[in-house]
């Protein structure tokens, strides 16, 4: 069933999910003292975490487990806003450099 464009009241489940993600992202940004322009990363981290941690009581599984039929890996869980370092392994480092025009 579809809903009419720009009528959020017709899809309460999605609106609630979006509100939950925004509230989680806002909390993560505030707790980590991260600038607001990282809002997209905070939303992505909140969605990643919630899909792998919220248990649906009826199934006793996470949403990820239900969709992919396997338990999610939590080895990628880190505290949002923690210090990280970029590892350059030498692969594709010149990919975005300007090309020589051959003259």
Automatic annotation (TrEMBL):
Organism: Tanacetum cinerariifolium (Dalmatian daisy)
One term of GO molecular function: nucleic acid binding
Biological process according to GO: DNA integration
Every Integrase catalytic domain range: 1-71
Listed PROSITE patterns: INTEGRASE
Protein's recorded name: Retrovirus-related Pol polyprotein from transposon TNT 1-94
